[in-house]
User: Which sequence fits this backbone?
């Protein structure tokens, strides 16, 4: 097919392809630490990527595009989704203060999830409650430290405070992973489901905060954090509820669950590849 005539006959689909390419290239450059300079409080790469994604979103909602054939509309919608998924809300290239605010924004959900954990023991079989209480005993203290460090970093985003925040999120992440492994020892199906539901809520928030912290950490810092993570994500994956995580992420960021589900999977994959 003649590419010139194809562009002429399908201008919106062709434009979508160009915007997809721009957003994809910008995403790769951002992951490699290539910024091409700064614009305001962000980078040129982040600005270009954001503009390409925004334009693609408008194009996908263009009434003329919607009046085209069903196949073309479906393809355009899928391409728009792919580009929008490049802009993961808790790992995309933001400056330190924006990430810090995002971390603090997750802390009420963390405190609520920990409170649910504390109230779950009363709902369990008497034989299972002690196992659960022992497995989650450190959640209160570790979550309080993480919340305090998040607020401290928002107020004073320095390298030393970031190091304390990194240590706090890894400490809680390891406690959560350990508690998920302990949940396997609970044999009562109803009790185990309640335990996993409660712990998974905490795990989702901690994973989101870990991704945010990692996004503003150097390669050396991420390697150090991963080295401190003795209980790896691969060890607890059978006990993670990705559907529940997607619902929480979608509700937090006000986005479709389908997008959040892919984002959760991508964040988990990135964390595993980083050694967590």
Assistant:
């Amino acid at each position: 097919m003649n590419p010139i005539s194809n562009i002429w006959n399908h201008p919106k689909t062709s434009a979508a392809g160009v915007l997809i390419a721009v957003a994809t290239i910008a995403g790769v450059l951002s992951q490699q630490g290539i910024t091409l300079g700064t614009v305001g409080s962000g980078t040129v790469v982040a600005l270009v990527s954001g503009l390409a994604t925004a334009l693609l979103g408008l194009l996908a909602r263009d009434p003329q595009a919607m009046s085209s054939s069903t196949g073309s509309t479906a393809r355009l919608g899928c391409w728009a989704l792919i580009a929008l998924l490049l802009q993961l809300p808790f790992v995309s290239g933001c400056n330190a203060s924006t990430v810090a605010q995002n971390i603090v924004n997750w802390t009420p959900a963390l405190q609520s999830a920990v409170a649910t954990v504390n109230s779950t023991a009363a709902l369990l079989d008497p034989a299972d409650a002690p196992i659960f209480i022992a497995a989650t005993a450190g959640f209160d203290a570790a979550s309080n430290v993480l919340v305090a460090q998040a607020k401290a970093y928002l107020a004073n985003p320095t390298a030393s405070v970031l190091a304390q925040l990194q240590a706090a999120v890894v400490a809680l992440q390891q406690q959560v992973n350990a508690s998920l492994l302990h949940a396997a020892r609970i044999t009562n199906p109803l009790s185990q489901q309640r335990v996993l539901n409660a712990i998974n809520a905490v795990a989702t928030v901690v994973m989101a905060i870990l991704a945010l912290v990692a996004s503003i950490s150097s390669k050396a810092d991420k390697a150090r954090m991963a080295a401190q993570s003795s209980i790896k994500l691969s060890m607890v994956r059978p006990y993670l509820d990705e559907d529940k995580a997607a619902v929480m992420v979608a509700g937090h960021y006000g986005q479709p669950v389908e997008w959040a589900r892919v984002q959760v999977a991508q964040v988990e994959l990135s964390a595993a590849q980083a050694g967590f």
